[in-house]
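Can anyone check this?
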Amino acid sequence: MKRSIILFPSFYNINTIKSIREKYDPLANCIAPHITIVFPFDSDISTDELKWHFNEVLKGIKKFSIQLKDFTGDFRDGYLFLNIKKGNDHIIELHDKLYSGILDGFLYRKATYCPHLTVGRLNEQIEFDKAVDELSYYSESFETVIDKIYVENIDINENSIIEFSFDL
């Protein structure tokens, strides 16, 4: 089963993000705006084992505030990002704790984890440059409290199906 572990921030102004994703993100109709903590992995780990893992490694972790602002990109893979300005350390802590124990073997160690919210993916350099320029005019800030973590199943069409949520 293909899964990932994510945050679904609920910003009052989330429609701005949704409209950007509709324009630039091929997965906009498959999954709501999200921050990935554990990247997609295939495993036969049971739901109960995952819940036990969450309970063990996330003891004492409380809800926290985040702020996202400013759009940037990385043309190597064509991704467009909304950057996390506040709450980054909390998200990295969740990432590090979850990638221990039964999930340790799924950690991709060839790249540093940098929390973000993906708003698009473009493969053509000209389109990518145009999108980065367009997004540079946005000055809006996005703020919310993170109080839940979600485990999703990803179907063959890349659609997200929530397996369970975990309250912080």
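Reply from J.R.: I decoded it. The longest strand covers residues 64-74.
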